[in-house]
Specification:
28% of the residues lie in helices and 19% in strands. It is α/β, with parallel strands linked by helices.
């Protein structure tokens, strides 16, 4: 993901994948797109979400990768694959010249034989740093994967040029085999760079089976299994190949909400939340005194430099005014979406959670996207904002990251761990307009910290257009009346937010969905 790209995409959202249809976004619930994952399902190690990361190695990809490693106990990472993008490609080593088909990269870089290629060793390098803290991480959760396992699933995908998908690679073959394996659960394919290596895997499956009597079975299996979480269009392979030939593959497309976690976060994050991204906070809670992995974490003005990338200048110490401010993790929403916080976002992208909120497209029913028409009300700016579905979690996300940073160096007793929240009522309730709905929840804290409770309505996630008034919203037991103007089939989403008193304070949730009869 590239800083220049981020500026350009603000000028014209219509460049995004499926441009005309995105304008017709309507709040279609995406329940049919993503298989249900209840709390017990997600908590089981064997049944944690399966995921594959594809990355072009941008500096913010590397920051995302370091956070990914500290959350690798929360999902099953089954592949780590190098890919190219419009901003990074290796070249074929033959001097072949290439011009981007993406307008911004074409204008900036013109004809090239290679572009800002970071190489295919940096993931191994960072995993070696992870290995140094691995034994300490195990004190906090035994489900962290071994460094050996993580190294064993690294593959090189299609990296020669932007959008190159002409031939099979170890990376595309690895993805192909996982999509064809016997396991039926979804595989979440994270696109931190271009879509081309995943597109090549799908093309190889098509080439193998298209003209056989197995094709329909294979097509349905793969389409039911693959879930693409795409951060912007960083090549044209989704639009030109995947959307055309695999229209039943499910897609979560993040074009706006990630900005609050990317290079231009000062524009999108309310001033009241920027403390958690400023240099003093980042230096104290993340960068320093938290072991060798996070010592490598990139911040503004930290003196670090990716030598292979001439455009990586953010670390230059001339940025003294930004010294140690958060730089960018534009790709992190794609795996934060998978963390089981109790928000149930895996059940439907439309529910909203740590990875953003997305609604169904009226023309392409397998596509869930954000965009200019998908906004959350920002209580700080007093306006509907296109990034706030992600921004609203910044304090909880950063405190959670700070706790993981502590896990790198502290004992279990010295560190903080998230509370465990549960509902004492059904997660899905039906009721009539005017009916009293009783809410009840409870929580325990692994560290014995005091807990606070807060019930709130996630208005944008529901289909009821009005507000509800929650009684006793700051207690375990609360209630509200379904408004008399609520219509049949309207949904009301109520979140139980539980926060502990530890340092840093950690938050978990439960969600009640009320459907009007």
């Amino acid at each position: 993901m590239n800083q220049t790209l981020k500026s350009a995409t603000q000028q014209k959202f219509s460049r995004a994948l499926l441009p005309r249809s995105i304008k017709k976004i309507i709040p279609i619930c995406c329940l049919c797109l993503i298989m249900n994952v209840d709390n017990a399902f997600a908590q089981s190690k064997a049944m944690r979400p399966r995921t594959i990361v594809t990355t072009d190695g941008e500096v913010d990809d590397q920051d995302s990768f370091m956070r990914l490693l500290l959350y690798s106990n929360d999902f099953n990472i089954e592949g780590l694959v190098y890919t190219s993008s419009e901003w990074h490609y290796k070249g074929d080593g033959k001097g072949t010249r290439f011009i981007s088909e993406m307008p911004m990269a074409k204008r900036i870089y013109g004809e090239r034989t290679e572009l800002r290629w970071i190489g295919t060793e940096w993931m191994t390098d960072l995993i070696n740093e992870y290995a140094k803290i691995y034994s300490n991480l195990l004190k906090h959760d035994k489900n962290f994967p071994t460094p050996q396992h993580l190294k064993s699933i690294i593959r090189v995908g299609n990296i020669d040029f932007e959008g190159e998908m002409d031939h099979d690679t170890p990376g595309s073959g690895f993805i192909k085999n996982i999509l064809l394996d016997y396991k039926q659960r979804p595989v979440y394919l994270q696109m931190w760079g271009g879509t081309n290596t995943v597109a090549r895997a799908l093309k190889s499956i098509e080439d193998t089976y298209k003209h056989t009597d197995k094709w329909q079975t294979v097509y349905k299996k793969v389409s039911a299994k693959a879930v693409l979480y795409i951060i912007l269009d960083q090549d044209a392979t989704y639009k030109k190949y995947v959307a055309v030939n695999w229209p039943d593959v499910k897609v979560i497309y993040n074009s706006n909400q990630f900005w609050s976690f990317a290079y231009f976060w000062p524009r999108d994050v309310p001033v009241e939340l920027q403390t958690f991204l400023k240099g003093r906070w980042m230096a104290e809670h993340i960068k320093f005194n938290h072991g060798p992995l996070l010592a490598r974490y990139f911040l503004w003005g930290d003196g670090q430099k990716l030598q292979a990338d001439p455009d990586h200048k953010e670390g230059d110490t001339v940025y003294a005014k930004k010294n140690y401010d958060f730089l960018s993790e534009g790709d992190s929403p794609s795996f934060l979406y998978l963390v089981n916080t109790g928000l149930r976002s895996l059940e439907s992208p439309s529910y909203g959670g740590w990875g953003g909120r997305f609604v169904g497209d009226s023309v392409h029913p397998k596509l869930c996207a954000d965009g200019k028409n998908v906004t959350d009300y920002d209580a700080y700016s007093k306006k509907d904002e296109v990034s706030f579905a992600q921004t609203r979690w910044i304090d909880a996300l950063q405190n959670d990251f700070a706790a993981r940073a502590d896990w790198c160096v502290k004992s279990y007793k010295e560190a903080n761990h998230a509370p465990i929240a549960k509902l004492n009522v059904a997660a899905n309730i039906s009721g009539n307009a005017g009916e009293l709905i009783k809410l009840s929840g409870s929580a325990t804290d692994p560290d014995g910290n005091e807990l606070t409770y807060h019930w709130w309505q996630y208005e944008e996630a529901g289909t009821y257009a009005g507000k509800i008034e929650i009684q006793n919203a700051q207690s375990r037991n609360a209630s509200f009346l379904i408004p008399p103007d609520a219509k049949t089939h309207n949904t009301i989403h109520v979140i139980l937010e539980v926060k502990d008193s530890g340092s840093p304070p950690l938050t978990r949730y439960q969600r009640v969905i009320v459907t009007v009869r």
